Fold each of these.
Amino acid sequence: MQTTAVIIGAGHAGLAMSSRLTELSIDHVVLERGQVANSWRTERWDSLRLLTPNWQSQLPGHSYSGDDPDGFMTMPDIIGFIDRYAEVIAAPVRDNTTVTDLRAINGDPTGGYEVHTNHGIWTCQSVVIAAGPANIANVPAIATQIPETVRTFNPMTYRNPSQLREGGVLVVGGSATGAQLAQEIQDHGHQVTLSLGEHVRMPRIYRGRDIFWWMDRSGILDERYDEIDDLTRGRNIPSPQLIGTPDRRTIDLNTLREAGIAVVGRLGSVTDGTAWFSGGLRNTCNLADLKLKRLLNGFDEWADETGCSDVDRPERFAPTVRDEHPVTSINLAEAGITNVLWATGYRPDYSWLNVDVLDRRGKIRHDGGVIDNAPGLYLVGGSLLRRRRSSFLNGAAQDSADLSTHLHRHLGGSVSKV
């Protein structure tokens, strides 16, 4: 089977790229291991909502059209939005098609690529990897030290509190996922202990506007990858402690404590059933508070400079509450902790990628989505790919425009017609 380009993955980023290639009359197929929006359908917890408000849900030629622009999409909403987009653009999706091997033809990327699947082999001049950065739960090696009597979960296996054993829950990781699940589980009657290190604190609403309104209007989300001083760190900053709810509430360590959740430092080890935590939580909280202050100061300066008048007066938030004597160890059995949820991030699965493009950490080497030393190979989706908004729905619209243009130039403008 032959085509000009193969897109691997039919999530929002892969479909955005499909739309762009169709606009450029580039013949292509979209290979999807399951169904459109597969990760949303099969690998997320039931109560998940987008962190971004509905008005920001935009893809090339398609945007949110409901009656709640300031709300946040639920799981069914997200799946429906992406499903409709695939239909609108008539994406050439081959579902239930798993890529098992990607390699250069005769070992030379300049000659094109072979994409091996469970339904045969595709040969093509270009490949777009849109399989997503969150294919595997990034559970640390320390998980093997948890006693067998404790049930363990990660965000890809956890669906709702009914799965949990009676008793307490240790949630490890305090970014958006950890904060949200800690709150949900506590609300369902389990005593939660939240273990975290570095984190990003943000209010849901600032001066009467959603925090993403501020980041969008002030230009933060459009800051490019080649304008970032430390790009590696920028791409690995924890996701902010945010939650999308109808009441647009803020979630941070103070609100979690008020809900009865115990907050401890980063988990370092587990020995004979005792979990040991860093005593440096005070410092990480101080740093999060400092960065929050800088962020809000920046918004205030932007509002003053631009004469923005449709916002409320500046405000500041109470500092994070710190324990005078932080807990550094917990015997899991004595504390009644019968469950551990690893909210410690995700990583991509590139086990099928047989082109020399991975760095020593197993990540793809690329320059804004243009993969190094592999002509015609591209990456879309992921944190700070080309802009700070890259990991969000509307980030794929801009990134796909840039990368499809580059792909078109790579093909020399001579392509098959759709």
Amino acid sequence: MAQEFSPRFERHRDDLVSVDVSGLSRLLGPARTIGEEMRREAAARGVRVHVAVAGTRMAALLLTIARPGLTIVAPGDEAAALAPLAIGILEKISCEDIGTQSSQDFAAFASLAFKKWGLKTLGELAALLSADLASRLGRPVLAWQAMARGEDLRPLVPMLEEERFESSLDLEWPISDLEPLSFVLTRLLEPLSTRLERRDRGAAVLHLLLRLVTKETTKRRLELPTPIRDVRALRTLALLDLEAHPAEAAIDRVTIVIDPTPGRVVQHTLYTRTQPTPEQLSTLLARLGALMGPDRFGAPAAVDTERPGAFAMVPFKTDVAQGFSPAIDRKAEALRHARLEPSALSPEPSVVSALRRCRQPVPARVAAVDGRPVRVTTDRHGFAGGAVTQCAGPWRTSGEWWLEGAGGS
């Protein structure tokens, strides 16, 4: 209902809305006529409302909560209109409504202090000296005094409708090749990119809906690693995804839906090497995925194991300012896999282990008694054998001994 009167309105909660009606005097008339029109519109919708028109937003909010019906306050008379109101009205307004940084606990403390001092009305609170009041309760209490005087603590923040970034096009002739489809995608993405730039937004997810001649709809969802609004990059990513997952029939309608996110802010420095943009990296990764498959490329990552040559692949990071992730604590990871508490583990044996890895394996002979090694010997020059005094394993050589069912040797 507030949107019917002015595009500048702010919803504080479900039952409290402030509207900027400063420009309606030439259209509807004086303030009383505007208030009566609001009540009449609410009654037509089956809603009972309290309306207050004042020179400041704070005075209108307090009068709306305190007095039923229609209240009109001339500009400049806000403090006088609020003076007879009971001071308990402060408890009915949250900190978010008045725009203060104080907590609800402080609001309850301040209200209790006002009652102990014998303050009964907002006029008595407004009449106190600000310096004396701040010295006793702190600077946050000045916001409550300003509210009692009808002063605005912050400007009105208009609410904007949730904008939907969607574009569709019905084709005169069905198309089945990617080349003519690229022109259609460009035509749809250009106005969407302009709207994203005006709103300082970027595409986080790109939804591509293709209606086929068989009356079926093919849906593709592209999660972008970074906010993108470049038309060429978005078009290339969509075409590469369709190349890897082609439609089953010709297309006669194309729809693009974008899930927006705040735009990316990039601050380059003078002393770092120039790196490719996230759009270029995203396009390169999409080409690799279409050529080799989405699970056959990535960045190498260390694996918590002692097995020679073991590694894993993780997705590439396209953000420029990405730091290195901290190394995984092997003992903590072992505890997590084994689901054991540290107090439940037995104390570690005092075994000093030494490991020497050679690129060319060195043949060795191990003498064992009752399944336990007792001596290691080798014929390679520079390597000395000897008796085995202590041993532990098999995790010292095979790795992943903490996993259930993992064998070792």
